[in-house]
Automatic annotation (TrEMBL):
Substrate binds at residues 25-29, 37, 41, 69-71, 73, 75, 192, 198-200. The lineage of its organism: Bacteria, Pseudomonadati, Pseudomonadota, Gammaproteobacteria, Vibrionales. This is Ditrans,polycis-undecaprenyl-diphosphate synthase ((2E,6E)-farnesyl-diphosphate specific). Its cofactor is Mg(2+). PANTHER family: DEHYDRODOLICHYL DIPHOSPHATE SYNTHASE 2 (PTHR10291:SF0), DEHYDRODOLICHYL DIPHOSPHATE SYNTHASE FAMILY MEMBER (PTHR10291). Keywords: Cell shape, Cell wall biogenesis/degradation, Magnesium, Metal-binding, Peptidoglycan synthesis, Transferase. It comes from Grimontia celer. It catalyses: 8 isopentenyl diphosphate + (2E,6E)-farnesyl diphosphate = di-trans,octa-cis-undecaprenyl diphosphate + 8 diphosphate. One of its GO terms (cellular component) is cytosol.
Length: 256
């Protein structure tokens, strides 16, 4: 099948609108090469770049990446501080490219625990890309699904306390508007690398109906082929089409 005919047969609207990724296995990837864990995190940044670029070119609406969980503070102090430095460097280096490609960046999570310089970089990157209309890239940092629900509940409780909504009339929608991903489609496809089959407190509300895709690959090995295979798996599960990662790739050629 030519890429053109594939494009005609597979409607881009079948793509998952929102893909969430738990990027796991950087440490084991580095260990397998006899290197320090940070070497794996740095290689993970290249995988982030490939994933963002592929998702944007395909026309995926939202990509949410789990960069740092609330639980990650328990890691050795040195790794945490090196990871923070890496975030600052990556933000500074990549934001122009993201902006040029129409990506809208948002950092979700409790960022108040980060250094002032990191918080400033985040605010500047979000402001620069705020009006972009391409891929929405959510980077989850110091994020936890339970934290997300709790911070929304607190805002809702305050509304009830002020008498704005009677408690007995509350709906899911009233809570949803206060969640980190408010206004965005729910997660259709959640991907986790490195063979672990857990969702680890990620997008607990938003992934209520998500298809869960687990791959043995370590995160630094995740590339365009890996993402297109995951998407083909999603389309086949949803629509029983029998399409392949190669066909999704062909779609990329057409979309370019
Ligand atoms: C999980 O691997 C990875 C992390 C906790 C950090 C992820 C960070 C990046 C990929 C780099 C920066 C990303 C952005 C968006 C700027 P792990 O350390 O848990 O690996 P292991 O399970 O093998 O130990």
């Amino acid at each position: 099948m030519s890429s053109q005919s594939f494009h005609q047969e597979i409607d881009p609207s079948l793509l998952p609108k929102h893909i969430a990724v738990i990027m796991d296995g950087n440490g084991r990837w580095a260990k397998a090469r006899g290197k320090a864990r940070m070497f794996g995190h740095k290689a993970g940044v290249d995988a982030v770049r490939k994933t963002v670029s592929t998702a944007n070119r395909l026309g995926v609406q939202v990509l949410t990446l789990f960069a740092f969980s609330s639980e990650n503070w328990r890691r050795p102090e040195e790794e945490v501080s090196l990871l923070m430095e890496l975030f600052v460097t990556v933000l500074g280096r990549e934001v122009k490219r993201l902006h040029k490609n129409g990506v809208k960046l948002k950092v979700i999570g409790d960022t108040t625990r980060f250094s002032q310089s990191l918080q400033d970089k985040i605010a500047a990157a979000e402001a620069l890309t705020a009006n972009n209309t391409g891929l929405v890239l959510n980077v989850a940092a110091n994020y936890g699904g339970q934290w997300d629900i709790m911070q929304a509940v607190k805002k809702l409780a305050a509304q009830v306390e002020r008498g704005e909504i009677p408690a007995e009339q509350l709906t899911e929608g009233d809570l949803q508007v206060h969640l980190s991903c408010s206004g965005l489609p729910d997660v259709d496809l959640m991907i986790r690398t490195s063979g672990e089959c857990r969702i680890s407190n990620f997008m607990l509300w938003q992934a209520a109906y998500a298809e869960l895709y687990f791959t043995e690959q370590f995160w630094p090995d995740f590339d365009e082929t890996s993402l297109t295979e995951a998407i083909a798996w999603f389309i086949n599960r949803e629509r029983r089409f029998g399409c392949t990662g190669e066909q999704i790739k062909a779609m990329l050629q057409v979309e370019k």
